[in-house]
Automatic annotation (TrEMBL):
PROSITE patterns per record: ABC_TM1
Pfam families: BPD_transp_1 (PF00528)
Membrane topology of this protein: Multi-pass membrane protein
Protein origin, superkingdom: Bacteria
Key words, A-Z: Cell membrane, Membrane, Transmembrane, Transmembrane helix, Transport
Protein's UniProt name: Glutamine ABC transporter permease
Subcellular localization(s) per the UniProt record: Cell membrane
Transmembrane spans: 12-42, 54-75, 185-208
InterPro entries according to UniProt: AA_ABC_transptr_permease_3TM, ArtM/GltK/GlnP/TcyL/YhdX-like, MetI-like, MetI-like_sf
Membership in a protein family: Belongs to the binding-protein-dependent transport system permease family.
Domain ABC transmembrane type-1 positions: 19-208
Main location: membrane
């Protein structure tokens, strides 16, 4: 094992550039997933005929598919129908599709957790359905959903590593390139990659636990 060679300034900078790609993909995908998931959750919560049922089928289908399959589909199947995406965009699209279904269920559970009495009181005070949703239900539901959404972001951050199969230049991909330079670099490189993932996710998990404790 060659720790000195593996941790040379050039290699560390290369890993850092991969980490930036990982974080960028994770943040963009999580923001898009949150907004799409919120819209889907609200439409399902409203129980609009047909639309609610169709969305339920779509969400459950996506949740039960392997993320790796969705990544392959975004990168290699979409070009067959005339949609050509670069590697970076393919990863974001695949992660957004998958995580939107996850966020939709988290948000829908949060909406359903609001007591019916509050909703009835809001409606009786003169608020219409949209106003009740906007001013009464959503604000409270979002506060309750923060811990599970942070946990889902942690899962999303780890899931970005699956995009290595389409050569996304993320942290794991760059680590593999460094490993290819010398067999002596393999263990040192994977150790530092594991520490990076652990540190980021551990900090986020502590943040989620503190938020959950504050709401208890």
């Amino acid at each position: 094992m060659d720790f000195i060679g593996a941790y040379s300034p050039g290699n560390l900078q290369f890993l850092l550039s991969g980490l930036m790609v990982t974080l960028k993909v994770a943040v963009i995908a999580s923001v898009l997933s949150f907004f799409i998931g919120t819209l889907v959750a609200i439409l399902r919560y409203a129980k609009i005929p047909v639309i609610s049922q169709v969305l339920m089928v779509v969400v459950e289908t996506i949740r039960n598919l392997p993320l790796l399959l969705i990544i392959f589909f975004a990168r290699f199947a979409l070009p067959d129908v005339g949609i050509n995406l670069d590697i970076f965009t393919s990863a974001i699209v695949a992660l957004t599709v998958f995580e939107s279904a996850m966020f939709a269920e988290i948000i829908r559970s949060g909406l359903n957790s609001i007591e019916k009495g509050q909703i009835e009181a809001a409606r009786s005070s003169g608020l219409n359905y949209i106003q009740t949703l906007r001013y009464i239900i959503l604000p409270q539901a979002l506060r309750r959903m923060v811990p599970p959404m942070v946990s889902q972001f942690i899962a999303l951050l780890k899931d970005t590593s699956l995009a290595v199969v389409i050569s996304l230049p993320d942290l794991l991909h760059n680590a593999q390139i460094i490993n290819g330079r010398s067999v002596e670099y393999v263990i040192p490189t994977f150790i530092i990659v594991a520490l990076i993932y652990f540190t980021i996710n551990y900090i986020l998990s502590i943040f989620a636990k503190r938020l959950e404790a504050r709401q208890a």
